[in-house]
Design brief:
123 residues, single chain, mainly beta, 5 strands, 5-stranded antiparallel beta sheet, 1 helix
Amino acid sequence: MALRPSDLVHEVEIVWLEEPDHDYVRQALDKQPKRRGQPRYARDGRLIGYANLSPDAQASYDSGLFTRRTFFLLPHDRSHAPHGDYEVGAPLEAVDPSTVRPGEPGRKTPRSQNSAAITPAGA
């Protein structure tokens, strides 16, 4: 499911734990106990960045948790396996980190898709 600006209305800051110079990062909405600070991370791979929320962001009535965006890479992503599954193209939830802004979903770009690696037929 694609993120919408309405999912990110309370974001005030994107914090990068690594330089965001990867071709792509995966973005997801995760439930977290706090509005700010490095969230817990329970996936394979590594956390690359996260969003901090404004003080007026409300926790979910059902869970008491805040919905925050996280950015991560998995062991089989292009940065770890350049000739693997994502040598060309990118996972569904992947975005170019240069397009990430608070309150705006990231986007795919030719860089995130590694479209320069595509050789047209007959070329």
